Amino acid sequence: MFERYNKVQQAVLETTLHLIIDKELQATSMSLIAKNSGVSTGNIYHYFSSKEDIINELYKAIVLFNGEFVTRDLHDGDTVQARFRRAWKNVIELGKKYPNGFRFIEQYSFSPYIHEASKLEAYKGGWCGPLASLYEEAVHQGLFIDMEPRMMVQMHYGSIVYLLKGHLQQHMELTDNVAEQTILACWNAVSKEKGWNE
After folding, report:
1. Where residue 42 sits, what CATH number does that domain have?
2. Three-state SS sequence of 78-138
3. Could you give the count of Cα atoms lying within 13 Å of 150 in the half-sphere of its Cβ?
4. Residues 95 and 6 occupy one common structural domain
5. Rounded Cα gap, residues 104 and 92, in angstroms
6. Is residue 197 one of the residues assigned to a domain?
7. In which domain, by residue range, is 157 found?
8. What's a Gene Ontology MF term here (predicted)?
9. What's the Cα-to-Cα distance from 92 to each of 52, 139, 158, 179, 195, rounded to whole Å?
10. Within a domain: 86
11. 37-65, pLDDT tens digit by residue?
12. 147 within some domain
C-alpha cells in the first residue's frame, strides 16, 4: 500500500495506520508512532512536519492505492456493464483484503484533520472520479436514468460499505454470491434495463 515511499516513510505510515485503528486518532501521539515504528522522532520530523501531516499523507496514500486497485482492470473497450461489475467487485475485494485502509477512509474522510486540498487531490487520484465518468458514460448511452453520476456512485458505495462493515464485524458473510446480488441490485437501481445482459 505504501510502496512508493522510502523505508522510513513506509514504517511511519504503516505504524500510524495500525495505531489509529487500534487506539483512535487522538490517542496516537508522535512519541507512540516513533516507539512503535522504530523511527526516531527526529527522523520522523525530517519527512513529516506534524502528526496532522502524517495523517494527511496517510489519507492520500490510501486513497491513491485504492484508486489504482479498483480501476486496475477497467478497459475502455469493455462494455459499461462489464466495467461496472468489475469496479464494484474490486471495491469489495479491496475492503476485504485491506480492512485497515478501508476502516481509516470510512472513519476519517470527513475529519477536520484531513485538509480540503488532500480531499480534492484524493478525489482526482482515487476511484470515485473514474467511476463517476463511467456512470456519466452510461447516462449518455441511455443505459442509466438521468441522475447526477457522482450521486449515483456515492449511493451505491453506501450499500457496499454497509455490507463490508457487516462482514468485517463478522455480522454477516460477504460471499461472492452476496456480492454479485448486491452489485446487480445497484445496477438495477439506476439502469433503464434490469438484469445482466452479458
Report:
1. 1.10.10.60
2. CCHHHHHHHHHHHHHHHHHHCHHHHHHHHHHCCCCCCCHHHHHHHHHHCCHHHHHHHHHHH
3. 4
4. no
5. 15
6. no
7. 51-190
8. transcription cis-regulatory region binding
9. 29, 24, 12, 8, 20
10. yes
11. 999 999 999 999 999 999 999 999 999 99
12. yes
Q: So what's the pLDDT on residue 113?
A: 85
83-94 pLDDT, tens digit each: 999 999 999 999
39 burial level (CB within 10 Å; 0-12, 13-18, 19+): buried
pLDDT at 143: 96
Same structural domain, 139 and 65: yes
**Pair (21, 94) in one structural domain:** no
**pLDDT tens per residue across span 153-191:** 999 999 999 999 999 998 888 999 999 999 999 999 999
Grid cell 457487516 is found at: 166
* Threshold 0.85, pTM exceeds: yes
Please report whether residue 196 resides in a domain: no
- Whether pLDDT at 196 is above 90: no
Distance, CA of 41 to CA of 163 (rounded, Å): 39
